[in-house]
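To fix ideas, we close by showing one paired sequence and structure record:
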Amino acid sequence: MPNKEMPLTVERKRLIQEAIREHGFTRKFKVIEHFKNHSLFQMSDRNFRDLITFDFEDIIDSGHVVKGRSVLKDAEGNIKLEWVKTSADKDKVLEATKIAVEELTATIKPIKPTKKPKGKLNKNLCNQYTITDYHIGMLAIAEESGEDWDIETAEQLIIDWFSQGIKNSPKAETCVFAQIGDFLHFDSIDPVTPSSGHVLDVSTRYTCLVRIAIRVIRKIILMLLKKYKTVQVVLAEGNHDISSSIWLREAFGVFFEDEPRVIIDRTMSPYYCFEFGSTLLFYHHGHKKNISNLDSTLVAMYKEQFGKAKYVYAHSGHYHHEHKKETNLMILEQHPTLSAKDAYSVRGGYHSKRNAKIITYSKEFGEVGRLTISPEMCK
């Protein structure tokens, strides 16, 4: 604790914070030297030495937490140097993101309702367009990974895929645009994964990535509105786009708030649910729970919906390859991706076929059909 001769008043805390910003938290001696002769402190040499051992944690900038500490002591055990590592508090960063989203969505002008599609549609069918781990903004070169991938390629392919899917899927009244996470390859100005800080291969700046992600999703929803009476939209959280998924859901929620035929799932937890008659559909990226232990989590969260359902399916991604499992509770499916492999995947020996599926569900009979479309089929 600081010496009683030198209480940490609001003004003193402010000055210490300014010095930390200037010199860095880990350079504690320089921060203290900054104040040795300051009129607000007026320390004796002994009190100045006491300040060297003072715990600075209570004046760390709001929104940061201590990650670790290293201390150098002399032969007598006196602390000579100290390094403290801090990082942004993830909960506070997410809360700040939510506040920013509220400010952003306040300026969005919702679109006017569109005309319903003509012709007879089957009210007992729902087509699920399943997209996961699309990684818009990722960079891959054919010489290294076998396939080229950049932001222009990604934008064109997904529009072509939806064009093929919409053209060839059954005439249903309802559809689900099930985007199950990692739609964006990176989540901030820095091209790193948000949780682990791994450096990523990227093909654009974050500003351009945001623009294209918004443009692509908006175009897809408008394409679906031309065929379906109701469009259910899931924009799931992934481990690559934790914060971005928040503003995507909120922005499109406001953008389509005057369009009753579009329902944006704005669930804040990364587990999503859609009821369709006796069929229950779950979605989770797979970064928190994989298909080996996902079923019990979903049932615990959605007990009421699960109790009413006759057919239950859960969809996930994250691992970029196909895997299907049936348990006593539901059928779980882990989906592959349409995107190309990046250097990380190739160097790790991860290889799988690229495709995405349109799965048709019945209100009465569960899954009744599916269509698999690969990138080669979109040319």
The first strand starts at residue 64 and ends at 73. The radius of gyration is 26 Å. The chain has two domains: 10-88, 90-378.
